[in-house]
Amino acid sequence: MTNTILENKVAIVTGGNRGLGKSIAIALAEAGANIVIVSRNVEKNKEVEDEIKKLGRDCISISTDLQKKDSIDNMVEETINHFGKIDILVNNAGVSTTKFALDVTEEEWDMIMNLNGKSLFFCSQAVAKHMKEQGSGEIINIASVVGAVGDVGISPYTASKGAVINLTRSLALEWARYGIQVNAIGPAYIETDMNRDALRKAKVDNKILSKTPMKRLGKPEELNGAVLLLASEGSSYITGQTIFVDGGWLAQ
Fold it and tell me: Are residues 225 and 206 in contact, defined by beta-carbon separation less than 8 angstroms?
């Protein structure tokens, strides 16, 4: 490994055992960071943990119910007990459902807002308490292009990601005095193993491509440049911002 811009940093990645989260966790490890994989699935967590250890980095995985504050606080305590510090938090965990607004149930609304909004806030709060004491830290929230514009059939998701973008601004304003930077990344549609079949349906694919000047879906690794920028000294004067990785979606 030659890229060591994050040498000896400690990074927590929520939802880090698959999809975008796994790609981000591996990219951070390849850049020198030690990693904490956070998700409920113990088996999947361990698979990524082993993969990162093969890169020569220390990695632990913590099974966490991100919708419960006590579970979040325990995850942060375990991280501190193992590594002694937290330098980077990537709030990646999220969920969505595809339904027209008239059909969304209360349970679906609560599930999406709790995981995409509530858990992100309390993960940030718990980690920021330690970052405040050390006088530094990078919090990176995974938002979405649809947090900045509307879309059809995913209204709770768009609401939650709009909240992420504005929460990023507010936390950046509050925590700048402590040396904590808070930024977000807003991807458009990124193709992963989990969503490939759904996104490749002709109707869905055509809808997405019609809104994307680059006329293709994104790849997980295409978020890594933005993540590494925001996690490193390269972003030392950037806070409260959302970087959109969207193939030109918002340029229209």
Answer: no
Q: Tell me the pLDDT tens digit for each residue of 205-250.
A: 688 889 999 999 999 999 999 999 999 999 999 999 999 999 999 9
Catalytically annotated residue among 157, 178, 189, 237: 157
> How many Cα atoms are found within 13 Å in the side-chain-facing hemisphere of 61?
23
CA-wise closest residue to 9 among 232, 240, 247 = 232
Q: Yes or no: say if 6 and 82 are a contact pair by the CB < 8 Å rule.
A: no
Question: What residue type is assigned to position 239 of the chain?
Answer: T
Helix spans in the chain (H):
19-30, 42-53, 69-83, 106-113, 119-134, 155-175, 196-199, 202-211, 224-231
What's the whole-model pTM score? 0.95
189 is catalytic: no
Nearest C-alpha neighbor of 130 from the set 168, 172, 175: 175
Backbone angles phi, psi at 89, to 5 degrees: -125, 125
Estimate the share of the chain in helix, then strand, then coil, as percent rounded to the nearest 5: 50, 15, 30
The DSSP result for 223-245, as a single string, is: GHHHHHHHHSGGGTT--S-EEEE
Residue 59 backbone dihedrals phi, psi, to 5 degrees: -150, 135
φ/ψ region of 56 (left if φ > 0, alpha if ψ in -120 to 50, else beta) reads: left
pLDDT tens per residue, range 71-96: 999 999 999 999 999 999 999 999 99
